[in-house]
Amino acid sequence: MDNDTIAITRRAGGKTLSYRVPIRERVKAGLERAKAKGVRQGRPTAQVSGAHLHMLQQEQVSIGEMARRLSVSRATVRRRLRALR
Fold this sequence. Notes:
Layout: E1 6-12, E2 15-21, H1 23-37, H2 50-58, H3 63-70, H4 74-84
Antiparallel strand pairs: 1-2
Helix pairs in contact: 3-4
């Protein structure tokens, strides 16, 4: 068996059936097809309004409290505030 195939064995009616499945190749081909179609891959970015952040900053709300109110992480709040500068 080469490195690009995985052997899957199972018992069916007392007989062992063995299948070779090139999973890595199929996944790679699928990802390439999606990329060619322009599909964005990965986790979606959190949507945070710059105006809302600016308003909270003017009220001198802490970064942690901003994150809680907006239901995002503190790191996301810091990144968005840095981008606003």
